[in-house]
Design goal:
six-stranded antiparallel beta barrel; 6 helices; 2 domains; nine-stranded mixed beta sheet; 18% helix; QueA-like; 17 strands
Amino acid sequence: MKRQDFYYELPEELIAQDPLEDRQSSRLLVLDKESGVISHRIFREVTEYLREGDCLVINDTKVIPARLIGSREGTNAKIEILLLKRRENNIWETLVKPGKKAKVGTRIHFGEGLLTGEVIGIVEEGNRLIRFTYDGIFEEILDRLGQMPLPPYITHQLEDKNRYQTVYAVNTGSAAAPTAGLHFTPELLKKIEEKGVAVARVTLHVGLGTFRPVKVDEITDHHMHSEFFRIDEEAAGKINHAKDTGGRVICVGTTSCRTIESAADENGRLKACSGWTEIFIYPGYSFKVLDCLITNFHLPESTLIMLVSALAGRENVLRAYEEAVREKYRFFSFGDAMYIG
């Protein structure tokens, strides 16, 4: 299967640059994965597609303000650092621009010396290992100095950091938001639970590999980035109960989907667990747990549009995307949503 099989034309003006004021007022394209029938709704109406006994799975990861702008010791040269994953205590794997200015031993100062980083190693894909030194609590310093690591296709400044967080974000660790969850409000979640739908919280810390394009022609040659996930007993119990009693499991976002599909055994059962996943879902994959998916519109030729195509069929998905372009839906992180059921 070729990367080009997942290409579609997208006018640049349809890439959403800012979040809507009311999270749940996004548009919702509904795709029937069996028939390919498409309908158009508003996101708050997603409740009409959920039934008593279903289980809605959400990813409660919290984005860290992972983008730091500093200066190289001995010069005023600006250096930008993106925190990717914590390796141990104060050592982080990072993406550095410009990388050629970040040799091993380079020291970088942030916030007039509030935070100092030293490059101590270079790992795969040129990422740098940086050891940070500071007085106080790292997370509090990061909150003061860091910026939200918005995707490269968003060029506007984000006025309110919380708009790149879901309303249920609690477990800090992501370099990017699980954006399908940005459409939910506390009121909408309450309405869903009052309908008799269980809400299961899982955690997957989203890495920047989410935005990396597939560069190989044959998609099976693509190497997926690894991401940390955790499922507790309560979430596993809710998901298993829905499957046992004839309910459906509806994932909010590809990250929730990848979490439960990674953790399930061959019978589709879940238990409390944590670990790293590199699962790559593309057409031909047989879903073990997931029945339906709430998701945003994804980049052409990305692993995420491949995942969606595994669920609903490539032809159905590309036809739905073409209709979304015609109907001028808003695309990507701050854009509109799909319900695939």
